Amino acid sequence: QVQLVESGGGLVQPGGSLRLSCTASGSRFSILTMGWYRQAPGKQRELVADITRGLSTNYADSVKGRFTLSRDNAKNTVYLQMNSLKPEDTAVYFCNFRTSFASYWGQGTQVTVSS
Question: What integer is the mean pLDDT of 62-87?
Fold first, then answer.
């Protein structure tokens, strides 16, 4: 059974930084893509960033230049370094891993940017 465990969320002031981590366990198949989505209050879930096995990255326009995605294939872990955080970044952040057979989601971690 595949499980994704997220960590690193919390409360920060505008301009601050956080690093989110997500580790997957139990997968028998190669993880093709790792990424993060977020859902703000009253909004739809949206892609923040994802990264392929070949380390090709894709970022939402709203976070490009501020967030950096990386992965450690040996550890089945994806990281999201978030700098220069803004109040509009406040959301529940969800880790997502995709294989050839399925897509897996974490339970979500709250990120709140407020003074």
Answer: 95
